[in-house]
Amino acid sequence: MSESLGIWLVRAQGEALASALQARLGGEVYRPWLNAMAQKEQFAAAYRLHTQWVILAASGIAVRFLDGLVQDKHSDPAVVVLDEAGRFAISLVAGHEGGANQLAYRVANAVGAVPVITTATEAMKPLVIGIGCRKGVPAERIEAAVRHALGERPLSEVREVASIDLKADEPGLIEFCARHDFPLRIFAREIIAARPWVTQPSAWVQQNVGLDGVCEPCALIACARGKLIVPKMALDGVAVAVVEDKQWMAA
Question: What is the pLDDT of residues 79-101, one digit of tens each?
Answer without folding.
Answer: 999 999 999 999 999 877 778 99
